[in-house]
Specification:
heterodimer, A: 258 residues, mainly alpha, MetI-like fold, 76% helix, flat, B: 376 residues, alpha/beta, D-Maltodextrin-Binding Protein, domain 2, nine-stranded mixed beta sheet, 41% helix
Chain lengths: 258, 376
């Protein structure tokens, strides 16, 4: 239903007449750059988040099921995955911001003048986003890793297989679809994150969610609400493309497994 | 009507406490002859004088307001004073909403009992929607300068302020002008309240910076160049300033309306020594706009609210919140102004600039093309 509203209104002018102007606005240099930045940010944090998250999840899965490590990591991941938004942004600003704890300490005690303005740009966003991406990966990927039966490993070893061969031929292919779908979830998660970005950088609209926020809520530039709908439509299309690619990938993965 | 980032959860909580169960508004009454008379009245005389207006408003019993944060320009006290004085319940909806939301809410709830009765809008949104207002001239209307009102009373400026520099006196030396903020003492400390292509305060902040750097309201480029310089010097922090960022020292300097900075002083009293100056040679002002919804479910109460806002009492209540009421100068001459609050306003040197609609369009255009490009 909301998607329907977005689709219809993306093609309406402010006065309610059909138009293609909103879509034409998507071709603007600013918005194209925002699109590219959003895709890069989401892809990089999804990939890094998936890899690190999977490693953590594996480490946790080898611990005893009722042990303290597992309970602490699962609980912490559950909290941290929801920790995005203004609080996370503020934690980073207070730590690494231009007047944050770390740069101030370095300046006052070591005389080192560090420039942390990168925190407010794309690289900073990657770092900050990882703090909710990795925990999310741990949560969604842990059940899949738990699905690996120890018997498979024992079987591989008794047939003379090495650890590498076990991962390459048994565990890897079994986990691949779950890994890909988790990474996809992370991609969508990063793509749609708004509050963290808005709190971290109010002056720039270099990713799509910030562009939408500006188009919808501006009290300076009026009548761009439907451009926001067009931007949202662009994000819907983006996710649709990725879902299609994912479905194709999964068919391939299943074929190998079969 | 505003970017509400600075006032956060507390505003919400207070407003909720204030509103209580009022969310369940009664349905609009059938338009009786009397209600019809109220909704076309253009002055208190049309009711047969103030007493008749008060009686009609009391009969309605309720007033719906929207987008009035209790800690913004002292609206919390304004609302409770009105309730006490007239015994009319004020239902305050969406205190943190922006101007565009006020208008869309009025359109969406048209004909319903919980539609807003009155608006408090930013100038740009106000002028784009004049067909939604009922003309009404409250007391003191004639004395308000002609460029601060619609000649028919469809809208009237209510209160305003100047762009100011708020700063933590314990952490940084007192700045006098925009040029001062480029000094190394302010490295990594200066924030602008919002994005100028989105928020009114930031928009006017850039205009003020232009004035302070050889530009004008017709030539805002020096203002953008100034912020680029501020960024390159590492002085500009791009974060959205909040009481939390101020208290933790991340934004020890904030460029914002003087009444917002006055609000921070109050909110952070005892924790941060927050002071406000209006920068030299860069006095940029703007007024908010008051209007009555032509489809107001409580037409008499809406008009009584306007009378209250423009009375000496209402004007002084705004002043107490650090805002400059539109009748301020006239009242200062007449000696009816709250002198303590009036002299507590930050000092202003030079002639204030108010942006005309023509200039606003040009500035918006320039910012749209350049701000994002320069700020990356």
């Amino acid at each position: 239903m909301p998607t329907g509203v977005v689709v219809v209104q993306a093609f309406l002018s402010d006065a309610g007449l059909p138009t293609l102007d909103n879509l034409r606005a998507l071709g603007g240099g600013d918005i194209l750059r925002a699109l590219l930045n959003s895709v890069v940010l989401s892809a990089v944090t999804a990939l890094l988040g998936a890899v690190f998250g999977a490693v953590v999840a594996y480490a946790v899965s080898t611990a005893s099921p009722d042990g303290a490590l597992r309970r602490v990591v699962s609980a912490a991941s559950g909290v941290l995955a929801q920790f995005g938004g203004v609080m996370l942004a503020f934690a980073w600003i207070a730590t690494l911001g231009l007047s944050g704890l770390v740069p101030t300490f370095l300046r006052d005690h070591l005389g080192a003048d560090v420039d942390t303005s990168w925190l407010y740009g794309l690289r900073g966003f990657v770092l900050v986003y990882l703090y909710f991406q990795i925990p999310l990966m741990v949560i969604v990927f842990l059940p899949s890793i738990d699905g690996l039966r120890p018997q498979w490993r024992e079987a591989a070893e008794s047939l003379g297989g090495s650890t590498w061969q076990y991962w390459r031929h048994v565990a890897g292919p079994v986990l691949a679809p779950a890994f890909a779908s988790s990474a996809l979830l992370l991609f969508a998660n990063a793509l749609s994150a708004y509050a963290t970005a808005a709190a971290l950088n109010a002056q720039s609209t270099f990713i799509l969610p910030l562009q939408i926020g500006n188009a919808i809520g501006s009290e300076v530039v009026l009548g761009r609400q439907n451009v926001a709908k067009a931007l949202a439509l662009e994000m819907v299309v983006l996710v649709a493309v990725i879902m299609t690619a994912y479905a194709w990938l999964q068919r391939r993965a299943e074929r190998w497994l079969g | 009507m505003r970017t509400r980032s600075v006032r956060g959860a507390t505003a919400c909580a207070v407003a909720l406490a204030l509103v209580g169960l009022a969310a369940c508004a009664p349905p609009a009454k059938e338009a009786s002859g009397e209600a019809k008379k109220s909704s076309t009245a253009t002055s208190a005389q049309a009711f047969g004088g103030m007493d008749a207006l008060v009686a009609a408003a009391k009969k309605e019993g309720t007033l719906n307001v929207i987008a009035l944060p209790p800690d913004w320009a002292n609206y919390g006290e304004m609302i409770s004073a009105f309730q006490t004085k007239y015994g009319i319940k004020v239902v305050s909806a969406q205190p943190d909403a922006d101007s565009a939301t006020e208008i869309s809410t009025a359109k969406n709830l048209k004909g319903q009992g919980n539609a807003p009765d009155v608006f408090d809008l930013g100038q740009a949104v106000a002028l784009a929607n004049t067909d939604l207002y009922a003309p009404y001239k409250a007391q003191g209307f004639d004395a308000i300068p002609a460029d601060l009102k619609d000649p028919d009373g469809k809208w009237v400026n209510d209160y305003g302020g100047y762009i100011s520099i708020g700063f933590d006196a314990k952490k940084v030396p007192a700045p006098k002008s925009f040029a001062d903020l480029l000094k190394p003492e302010y490295k990594g400390k200066v924030a602008l309240n919002g994005n100028p292509t989105k928020a009114g305060a930031a928009f006017s902040g850039v205009v003020a910076a232009a004035l302070g750097n050889g530009g004008s309201a017709d030539d805002v480029a020096p203002g953008v160049d100034y912020f680029v310089k501020l960024k390159e010097a590492g002085n500009l922090v791009p974060v959205d300033p909040t009481p939390a960022t101020i208290q933790s020292g991340q934004t020890a300097v904030v460029i914002d309306w003087d009444y917002n900075n006055a609000g921070q002083t109050k909110a952070l009293a005892g924790k941060v020594n927050w002071k406000t100056v209006v920068p030299q040679g860069a006095v940029t002002g703007a007024y908010y706009v008051q209007a009555v919804n032509k489809d107001a479910p409580h037409p008499a109460a809406a008009r009584l609210w306007e009378e209250f806002l423009y009375s000496d009492e209402g004007q002084n209540l705004w002043l107490k919140g650090g805002a400059r009421p539109v009748r301020g100068e006239e009242m200062a001459k007449a000696g009816t102004i709250d002198k303590a609050a009036y002299s507590a306003l930050p000092a202003v040197s030079g002639t204030p600039i108010f942006i005309t609609e023509e200039q606003r369009a040009k500035i918006t255009d320039y910012l749209n093309q350049n701000w994002q490009k320069e700020m990356g």
